[in-house]
Amino acid sequence: MPVGSPYRHLSRRVRALPGLMSRAPSWVLLLVGVVTTALGVLLAVRPLSSLTVLGVYVGLSCVVSGVGDLVTHRDGAGWRPLVSGAGWVLAGVAVLVWLGRSLELLGPSVAVLLIASGAARLLDLRRGPTADRALSGVFGLSEIAFGVVALAWPDATLLVVAFLFGMRTAAFGLSLLWRGVARRTPSGARRPSRGPVAVRWTAAGVVLLVAGTTLAVSHELRQGIPVLDGFYDAPDAVPDEAGQLLRVEPYGGDLPPGLEAHRILYTTTADDGVPALASGVVAVPAESTGRPVPLVAWAHGTVGVARACAPSLGRDAISTEGMPAMDALARNGWGMVATDYTGQGTEGDFPYLIGQGEGRSVLDAVRAAHQVAGLDLSPETVIWGHSQGGHAALWAGQLAPTYAPDVAVVGIAALSAASDPLALAQVVTAHPGALGASLGISFVVAAYSRWYPDISLDDVTPAARTLVREAAARCTSEPGSLVTVLTGVAVSADTPILRTDPTAGAVGRRLRENVPLGPWQAPLFLAQGGADEVIVPRLQDDYVSRLCAAGRPLLYTRYADRSHMGVLEPDSPLNADLEQWTQERLAGLPQADSCP
């Protein structure tokens, strides 16, 4: 079968077209060879820019396969070849019809055809020489394996299929060119001999090995997906008031030394004022300090936008991994409450770079922590956040006086913050091939399309919609997110993820709404790595200049040669600076101002 398989000589279906070409004159072979080779190269190197070509090719291949079955049908062969032939013709017509309606159906349909083709090979093993039957069985199993993998990874299916079709088509075109050239030589009239059997068995072994390896790797990549438990389910009675503790249980994660923790479920508010639920972890010193414990409210960075990405599901919600100055908590007698935000762990829409939802989740986590029995917490709260969490920290500090005046915020530290989502979108879309760029774009579009009525997946290029959906269903900690990253790089090489400029229209308007500009009643500390590959230092510099021009006092520190995560490493000078800054905020000391 032509679909997904380069081994035409092992299948009766594909003898129709090569048979016709074998009787063609040399100039026809050369012409068709040039066109076919060019088409194959186009499919292989620009898979998504040539989706229309790929879809037409798949559909026509299925039709040719079916015609081959029907033409080569012999009396007494039974009903199976007739049914198979009619089935492939109908499948080809269906692909051609679907192509005009939804490109997203092309990948799954090809995956199903691969499985069907492999199954048909296995069902037809009763006929023919033993060696041919064994080879056909090997290729049948391989097709089934590739089909299963294609269904398991919808975002990568079209890329893989396009590449395989492209390589196969280019190889077929080159063979036609060789035959056309051969016919113009004196030896061209001689019939080429059949390749050695050893070559066929070697090819079969390689294909089976690749298929098996691909299937095994696919299985491994699907491991490690977080599984939600009943703790995050909404109770029967949920109060309308935000910041109410609903459920608490011990948390057994990998805590920094000297801390003990609980997982909490609490009420909060979505952007539109609708009551929502959120979860998190609160940790305090295991040994009593003899005085109320000040709280640090931690806002985590990007981990995905799916419900199962909640940090409290794992062991690192509050840990020394990817979090700054963790050894300072127990040493100074501080506690920490780390929100998952609404929509992670709990049901609801996750507010990725949506300031109102992020900030409210942070502030209500503080309120809920004060209701945990047995904890003696002081009213003073300092907010820390990194990356997306830096954006959340800025919004929480900005919202606190009006949304949660009962939360005494005495300082806001935004570290490597995604402070200006609009400017960040400009940088990311200008460099779409950068690793992780597609993830960031997908997370924003997925979250914004769920949160705002004027944004939808219609703003996404049709070829990239499957990528956006799959990215929104995965967490960055999952091994499978590597597939999304690599697919995103390939997608961006051919076509932009967004249809239009992200700074214009509804997307641009909503991004602009989510730039926190203050004012802040508590001292503000901004920290930035000088070698940050995610939040370009220039963006943070521009944001700070904008705040200074608006009269917003702040402390801004850049850490040379520190990357996005490097500012959080144990040897980073940020740790000591953050600890001292927090001590000064809790002591009520004034803060220096970096603005001119």
Could you explain the architecture of this structure?
The chain has a nine-stranded mixed beta sheet with strand order 1-2-3-5-4-6-7-8-9, sandwiched between helices. It is about 45% helix and about 10% strand. The protein has about 600 residues and is α/β, with parallel strands linked by helices. Helix 3 runs antiparallel to helix 4 and helix 5 packs antiparallel against helix 6.
Radius of gyration: 30 Å
How many strands appear in the DSSP assignment?
A: 9
Sheet with the most strands: spatial strand order:
1-2-3-5-4-6-7-8-9
The global form is elongated
Number of helices: 18
**Uncertain ranges:** 1-16, 188-196
CA distance, first residue to last residue: 72 Å
Proportion of residues in helical segments: 40-55%
Multimer state: single chain
Summarize the topology.
Blueprint: H1 16-22, H2 26-45, H3 51-71, H4 80-99, H5 106-123, H6 130-152, H7 154-183, H8 197-221, E1 245-251, E2 259-269, E3 275-285, E4 293-299, H9 327-332, E5 335-342, H10 355-369, E6 377-386, H11 388-403, E7 408-415, H12 421-430, H13 437-451, H14 465-472, H15 481-494, H16 505-513, E8 524-529, H17 537-549, E9 555-559, H18 574-586
Parallel strand pairs: 4-5, 4-6, 6-7, 7-8, 8-9
Antiparallel strand pairs: 1-2, 2-3, 3-5
